[in-house]
Amino acid sequence: KEDTLKVIGMLSLQIRANREKVLTWEGTVEFVFDRYYRGEQAASALEQKKFYKPKEAGIPNTVKTTKMGTIKYILDTSKKSHYEKVTRAEPIRYFDGNGSELGSESGPYEAVSIVTPDSYVHSLALMPEGRIVGHSTKRESVTGDNVLSKKGVFDPQTHLKLGMPIWEYLDRVRKLHEENGKLHIGGRAIEVRGRVNNGKAEYVILSPYMQGSPAEPGSPSGYMNLCFSEDAGLNLVTMELTNVDGKVLQQVEWDYVTLGEIVIPREMRRRNYMEDGKVWYEAKYVFSDQKLNRLVAPGTFTYENLGLLDGDVIVDEVAKKKFRYEAATQTLKPAEQ
What we know:
There is one protein chain. The protein is mostly beta strands. 15% of the residues lie in helices and 48% in strands. α1 (2-20) runs antiparallel to α5 (166-180). The model has no long low-confidence stretch (mean pLDDT 89).
Protein backbone atom coordinates (compact mmCIF):
# COMPACT_ATOMS: atom_id res chain seq x y z
CA LYS A 1 0.00 0.00 0.00
CA GLU A 2 2.84 2.40 0.79
CA ASP A 3 4.42 1.59 -2.59
CA THR A 4 1.08 2.38 -4.23
CA LEU A 5 0.93 5.77 -2.52
CA LYS A 6 4.51 6.50 -3.58
CA VAL A 7 3.67 5.74 -7.21
CA ILE A 8 0.58 7.96 -7.08
CA GLY A 9 2.63 10.77 -5.52
CA MET A 10 5.41 10.38 -8.10
CA LEU A 11 2.99 10.52 -11.01
CA SER A 12 1.27 13.59 -9.58
CA LEU A 13 4.53 15.49 -9.09
CA GLN A 14 6.00 14.54 -12.49
CA ILE A 15 2.90 15.36 -14.54
CA ARG A 16 2.36 18.66 -12.75
CA ALA A 17 6.03 19.66 -13.09
CA ASN A 18 5.94 18.96 -16.84
CA ARG A 19 2.75 21.02 -17.22
CA GLU A 20 4.10 23.96 -15.21
CA LYS A 21 6.99 24.32 -17.66
CA VAL A 22 4.48 25.31 -20.34
CA LEU A 23 3.97 29.09 -20.28
CA THR A 24 2.68 29.50 -23.83
CA TRP A 25 1.81 26.88 -26.43
CA GLU A 26 0.84 27.23 -30.05
CA GLY A 27 0.48 24.84 -32.93
CA THR A 28 -1.75 23.30 -35.56
CA VAL A 29 -3.90 20.19 -35.40
CA GLU A 30 -5.32 18.25 -38.32
CA PHE A 31 -8.47 16.40 -37.30
CA VAL A 32 -10.78 13.72 -38.67
CA PHE A 33 -14.14 13.03 -36.98
CA ASP A 34 -16.21 9.99 -37.92
CA ARG A 35 -19.77 9.64 -36.60
CA TYR A 36 -21.79 6.43 -37.06
CA TYR A 37 -25.59 6.23 -37.24
CA ARG A 38 -27.47 2.93 -37.26
CA GLY A 39 -31.09 1.90 -37.74
CA GLU A 40 -33.52 4.73 -37.10
CA GLN A 41 -30.62 7.10 -36.48
CA ALA A 42 -29.36 6.39 -40.01
CA ALA A 43 -32.72 7.45 -41.43
CA SER A 44 -32.69 10.59 -39.29
CA ALA A 45 -29.14 11.44 -40.41
CA LEU A 46 -30.26 11.42 -44.06
CA GLU A 47 -33.59 13.11 -43.47
CA GLN A 48 -34.07 16.21 -45.64
CA LYS A 49 -30.61 15.91 -47.18
CA LYS A 50 -30.87 17.36 -50.69
CA PHE A 51 -28.24 15.01 -52.07
CA TYR A 52 -30.09 11.84 -51.05
CA LYS A 53 -33.26 10.35 -52.57
CA PRO A 54 -34.48 7.67 -50.10
CA LYS A 55 -37.35 6.52 -52.34
CA GLU A 56 -34.87 5.69 -55.09
CA ALA A 57 -31.88 4.43 -53.10
CA GLY A 58 -33.50 3.21 -49.87
CA ILE A 59 -32.17 3.85 -46.37
CA PRO A 60 -28.90 2.07 -45.51
CA ASN A 61 -28.71 0.39 -42.11
CA THR A 62 -25.50 2.29 -41.30
CA VAL A 63 -24.52 5.85 -42.17
CA LYS A 64 -21.10 7.35 -41.41
CA THR A 65 -20.32 11.06 -41.58
CA THR A 66 -16.74 12.28 -41.93
CA LYS A 67 -15.62 15.78 -41.01
CA MET A 68 -12.02 16.94 -41.63
CA GLY A 69 -10.19 20.17 -40.99
CA THR A 70 -7.47 22.03 -39.14
CA ILE A 71 -7.27 23.89 -35.86
CA LYS A 72 -4.79 26.65 -35.12
CA TYR A 73 -4.43 27.18 -31.37
CA ILE A 74 -2.55 29.53 -29.07
CA LEU A 75 -2.71 29.43 -25.29
CA ASP A 76 -1.12 31.56 -22.62
CA THR A 77 -1.22 29.87 -19.21
CA SER A 78 -0.35 33.00 -17.23
CA LYS A 79 -3.25 34.92 -18.79
CA LYS A 80 -5.50 31.84 -18.77
CA SER A 81 -6.37 32.72 -22.35
CA HIS A 82 -6.95 30.55 -25.39
CA TYR A 83 -7.26 31.25 -29.13
CA GLU A 84 -8.65 28.81 -31.67
CA LYS A 85 -9.24 29.03 -35.41
CA VAL A 86 -11.07 26.12 -37.02
CA THR A 87 -10.97 25.74 -40.80
CA ARG A 88 -12.70 23.14 -42.95
CA ALA A 89 -12.08 23.29 -46.69
CA GLU A 90 -13.87 20.00 -47.38
CA PRO A 91 -17.60 19.34 -46.98
CA ILE A 92 -19.05 16.84 -44.51
CA ARG A 93 -19.22 13.51 -46.35
CA TYR A 94 -21.78 10.73 -45.90
CA PHE A 95 -21.05 7.03 -46.46
CA ASP A 96 -23.02 3.82 -46.15
CA GLY A 97 -21.87 0.77 -44.18
CA ASN A 98 -19.87 -0.52 -47.16
CA GLY A 99 -17.90 2.71 -47.53
CA SER A 100 -19.72 3.93 -50.63
CA GLU A 101 -20.18 7.70 -50.62
CA LEU A 102 -23.80 8.83 -50.46
CA GLY A 103 -23.17 12.55 -50.87
CA SER A 104 -21.92 15.63 -49.04
CA GLU A 105 -23.24 18.80 -47.48
CA SER A 106 -22.06 22.20 -46.30
CA GLY A 107 -19.28 24.12 -47.92
CA PRO A 108 -16.11 25.64 -46.43
CA TYR A 109 -16.19 26.56 -42.75
CA GLU A 110 -14.13 29.00 -40.70
CA ALA A 111 -14.61 30.13 -37.11
CA VAL A 112 -12.52 31.78 -34.42
CA SER A 113 -13.00 31.37 -30.66
CA ILE A 114 -11.22 33.33 -27.95
CA VAL A 115 -11.55 32.39 -24.29
CA THR A 116 -10.27 34.66 -21.52
CA PRO A 117 -10.96 34.56 -17.77
CA ASP A 118 -14.03 36.80 -18.15
CA SER A 119 -15.44 36.09 -21.60
CA TYR A 120 -15.93 33.79 -24.58
CA VAL A 121 -15.99 35.23 -28.10
CA HIS A 122 -17.09 33.19 -31.10
CA SER A 123 -16.88 34.55 -34.65
CA LEU A 124 -18.32 32.49 -37.50
CA ALA A 125 -17.36 33.40 -41.06
CA LEU A 126 -20.36 33.88 -43.37
CA MET A 127 -19.52 32.09 -46.62
CA PRO A 128 -22.68 31.71 -48.75
CA GLU A 129 -20.73 30.95 -51.93
CA GLY A 130 -17.43 29.79 -50.45
CA ARG A 131 -16.15 33.34 -50.01
CA ILE A 132 -16.16 35.25 -46.70
CA VAL A 133 -18.60 38.17 -46.89
CA GLY A 134 -18.88 38.89 -43.16
CA HIS A 135 -18.92 37.40 -39.69
CA SER A 136 -21.49 36.53 -37.06
CA THR A 137 -19.77 37.41 -33.79
CA LYS A 138 -20.90 37.23 -30.18
CA ARG A 139 -19.21 37.84 -26.83
CA GLU A 140 -20.57 36.33 -23.63
CA SER A 141 -19.44 35.97 -20.03
CA VAL A 142 -17.97 32.74 -18.70
CA THR A 143 -17.96 31.21 -15.24
CA GLY A 144 -16.84 27.96 -13.66
CA ASP A 145 -14.37 25.33 -14.80
CA ASN A 146 -13.94 23.40 -18.04
CA VAL A 147 -15.01 26.37 -20.16
CA LEU A 148 -13.21 25.06 -23.26
CA SER A 149 -15.05 21.76 -23.07
CA LYS A 150 -18.40 23.42 -22.42
CA LYS A 151 -17.97 25.71 -25.42
CA GLY A 152 -16.62 23.00 -27.72
CA VAL A 153 -13.21 24.68 -28.03
CA PHE A 154 -10.28 22.35 -28.73
CA ASP A 155 -7.93 21.94 -25.78
CA PRO A 156 -4.47 20.47 -26.53
CA GLN A 157 -4.18 19.65 -22.81
CA THR A 158 -6.75 16.82 -22.70
CA HIS A 159 -3.94 14.43 -21.74
CA LEU A 160 -3.77 16.32 -18.44
CA LYS A 161 -7.44 16.22 -17.50
CA LEU A 162 -9.89 13.73 -16.02
CA GLY A 163 -12.71 16.17 -15.36
CA MET A 164 -9.99 17.97 -13.38
CA PRO A 165 -6.20 18.20 -13.71
CA ILE A 166 -4.75 14.69 -13.35
CA TRP A 167 -2.52 15.71 -10.44
CA GLU A 168 -5.59 16.96 -8.57
CA TYR A 169 -7.30 13.63 -9.19
CA LEU A 170 -4.24 11.74 -7.93
CA ASP A 171 -3.95 14.05 -4.92
CA ARG A 172 -7.62 13.43 -4.09
CA VAL A 173 -6.99 9.70 -4.21
CA ARG A 174 -4.17 10.11 -1.69
CA LYS A 175 -6.39 12.32 0.49
CA LEU A 176 -9.13 9.69 0.48
CA HIS A 177 -6.56 7.21 1.80
CA GLU A 178 -5.49 9.62 4.52
CA GLU A 179 -9.11 10.13 5.60
CA ASN A 180 -10.32 6.54 5.32
CA GLY A 181 -7.16 4.48 5.61
CA LYS A 182 -8.07 2.76 2.34
CA LEU A 183 -7.48 3.29 -1.36
CA HIS A 184 -11.18 3.11 -2.14
CA ILE A 185 -13.70 5.16 -4.11
CA GLY A 186 -17.37 4.34 -3.66
CA GLY A 187 -16.45 1.21 -1.74
CA ARG A 188 -14.38 -0.10 -4.66
CA ALA A 189 -10.62 -0.57 -4.40
CA ILE A 190 -8.13 1.38 -6.49
CA GLU A 191 -5.38 -0.79 -7.96
CA VAL A 192 -1.94 0.38 -9.08
CA ARG A 193 0.22 -1.96 -11.11
CA GLY A 194 3.74 -1.58 -12.45
CA ARG A 195 5.08 -3.22 -15.58
CA VAL A 196 7.84 -2.89 -18.17
CA ASN A 197 7.13 -2.28 -21.85
CA ASN A 198 10.06 -2.19 -24.30
CA GLY A 199 12.43 -1.49 -21.44
CA LYS A 200 10.37 1.43 -20.11
CA ALA A 201 8.35 1.47 -16.90
CA GLU A 202 4.59 1.81 -17.11
CA TYR A 203 2.09 2.31 -14.31
CA VAL A 204 -1.54 1.28 -14.63
CA ILE A 205 -4.23 2.65 -12.33
CA LEU A 206 -7.56 0.82 -12.20
CA SER A 207 -10.06 3.07 -10.49
CA PRO A 208 -13.81 3.55 -10.05
CA TYR A 209 -15.04 6.96 -11.15
CA MET A 210 -18.03 9.14 -10.38
CA GLN A 211 -20.12 10.82 -13.05
CA GLY A 212 -18.90 14.42 -13.31
CA SER A 213 -16.01 13.92 -10.88
CA PRO A 214 -13.69 10.90 -10.88
CA ALA A 215 -12.71 10.97 -7.22
CA GLU A 216 -15.76 11.65 -5.08
CA PRO A 217 -17.55 9.46 -2.51
CA GLY A 218 -20.62 7.57 -3.62
CA SER A 219 -21.51 4.70 -5.89
CA PRO A 220 -19.25 4.49 -8.98
CA SER A 221 -20.62 5.23 -12.43
CA GLY A 222 -18.00 3.00 -13.99
CA TYR A 223 -14.27 2.34 -14.07
CA MET A 224 -11.13 3.97 -15.47
CA ASN A 225 -8.08 2.12 -16.71
CA LEU A 226 -5.23 4.65 -16.89
CA CYS A 227 -1.74 3.89 -18.19
CA PHE A 228 1.19 6.25 -17.57
CA SER A 229 4.49 5.61 -19.38
CA GLU A 230 8.07 6.51 -18.61
CA ASP A 231 8.57 6.70 -22.38
CA ALA A 232 6.14 9.66 -22.40
CA GLY A 233 7.55 11.48 -19.38
CA LEU A 234 5.08 9.57 -17.15
CA ASN A 235 2.21 11.21 -18.97
CA LEU A 236 -1.05 9.43 -19.68
CA VAL A 237 -0.73 7.24 -22.81
CA THR A 238 -4.03 5.32 -22.71
CA MET A 239 -7.36 5.74 -20.96
CA GLU A 240 -10.26 3.33 -21.07
CA LEU A 241 -13.66 3.99 -19.49
CA THR A 242 -16.16 1.22 -18.83
CA ASN A 243 -19.58 1.08 -17.25
CA VAL A 244 -20.19 -0.80 -13.99
CA ASP A 245 -20.71 -4.00 -15.99
CA GLY A 246 -17.29 -3.71 -17.62
CA LYS A 247 -18.49 -2.72 -21.11
CA VAL A 248 -16.08 -0.33 -22.81
CA LEU A 249 -17.54 3.15 -23.34
CA GLN A 250 -14.48 5.12 -24.44
CA GLN A 251 -10.84 4.54 -25.37
CA VAL A 252 -8.25 7.31 -25.80
CA GLU A 253 -4.59 7.01 -26.83
CA TRP A 254 -1.82 9.61 -26.93
CA ASP A 255 1.60 9.63 -28.61
CA TYR A 256 4.14 12.22 -27.47
CA VAL A 257 7.09 14.30 -28.60
CA THR A 258 9.69 16.10 -26.47
CA LEU A 259 10.44 19.77 -27.14
CA GLY A 260 13.39 20.81 -25.04
CA GLU A 261 12.58 19.26 -21.67
CA ILE A 262 8.81 19.38 -22.12
CA VAL A 263 6.71 16.41 -23.23
CA ILE A 264 3.59 17.24 -25.27
CA PRO A 265 1.24 15.21 -27.49
CA ARG A 266 1.90 14.66 -31.19
CA GLU A 267 -1.19 12.54 -31.85
CA MET A 268 -4.43 11.67 -30.07
CA ARG A 269 -7.01 9.02 -31.01
CA ARG A 270 -10.41 8.52 -29.43
CA ARG A 271 -13.23 6.01 -29.79
CA ASN A 272 -16.65 6.07 -28.16
CA TYR A 273 -18.79 2.93 -27.96
CA MET A 274 -22.47 2.18 -27.63
CA GLU A 275 -23.74 -0.29 -25.00
CA ASP A 276 -23.79 -3.02 -27.67
CA GLY A 277 -20.05 -2.57 -28.24
CA LYS A 278 -20.31 -0.84 -31.62
CA VAL A 279 -18.32 2.32 -32.29
CA TRP A 280 -20.46 5.44 -32.65
CA TYR A 281 -17.71 8.09 -32.75
CA GLU A 282 -14.03 8.20 -33.72
CA ALA A 283 -11.65 11.16 -33.64
CA LYS A 284 -8.02 11.56 -34.65
CA TYR A 285 -5.86 14.62 -33.98
CA VAL A 286 -2.37 15.05 -35.45
CA PHE A 287 -0.30 17.92 -34.00
CA SER A 288 2.29 19.88 -35.99
CA ASP A 289 4.28 23.11 -35.96
CA GLN A 290 4.20 23.19 -32.17
CA LYS A 291 6.02 25.96 -30.34
CA LEU A 292 6.43 26.39 -26.60
CA ASN A 293 7.16 29.43 -24.46
CA ARG A 294 7.31 31.91 -27.32
CA LEU A 295 6.18 35.50 -26.84
CA VAL A 296 2.50 35.77 -27.76
CA ALA A 297 1.77 38.68 -30.07
CA PRO A 298 -0.20 41.60 -28.59
CA GLY A 299 -3.86 41.47 -29.52
CA THR A 300 -3.91 37.68 -29.85
CA PHE A 301 -6.81 37.34 -27.41
CA THR A 302 -8.76 40.44 -28.50
CA TYR A 303 -11.21 41.34 -31.27
CA GLU A 304 -8.17 42.37 -33.35
CA ASN A 305 -7.46 38.68 -33.97
CA LEU A 306 -10.94 37.68 -35.12
CA GLY A 307 -10.31 38.48 -38.79
CA LEU A 308 -13.29 40.83 -38.96
CA LEU A 309 -14.30 42.69 -42.11
CA ASP A 310 -15.32 46.33 -42.27
CA GLY A 311 -18.86 46.70 -41.00
CA ASP A 312 -19.01 43.40 -39.09
CA VAL A 313 -21.13 43.64 -35.96
CA ILE A 314 -20.18 42.19 -32.56
CA VAL A 315 -23.05 41.40 -30.21
CA ASP A 316 -21.52 41.96 -26.77
CA GLU A 317 -23.76 40.28 -24.21
CA VAL A 318 -21.37 41.25 -21.42
CA ALA A 319 -21.60 44.99 -22.10
CA LYS A 320 -25.22 44.66 -23.32
CA LYS A 321 -24.23 46.57 -26.46
CA LYS A 322 -23.52 46.09 -30.16
CA PHE A 323 -20.35 47.28 -31.85
CA ARG A 324 -19.38 47.67 -35.49
CA TYR A 325 -15.84 47.03 -36.71
CA GLU A 326 -14.21 49.86 -38.64
CA ALA A 327 -11.38 48.50 -40.79
CA ALA A 328 -9.85 51.90 -41.58
CA THR A 329 -9.08 52.56 -37.90
CA GLN A 330 -9.12 48.91 -36.75
CA THR A 331 -11.44 49.88 -33.92
CA LEU A 332 -14.94 49.07 -32.67
CA LYS A 333 -17.60 51.75 -32.88
CA PRO A 334 -21.06 51.68 -31.26
CA ALA A 335 -23.47 50.14 -33.73
CA GLU A 336 -26.73 51.86 -34.53
CA GLN A 337 -29.58 50.14 -32.75
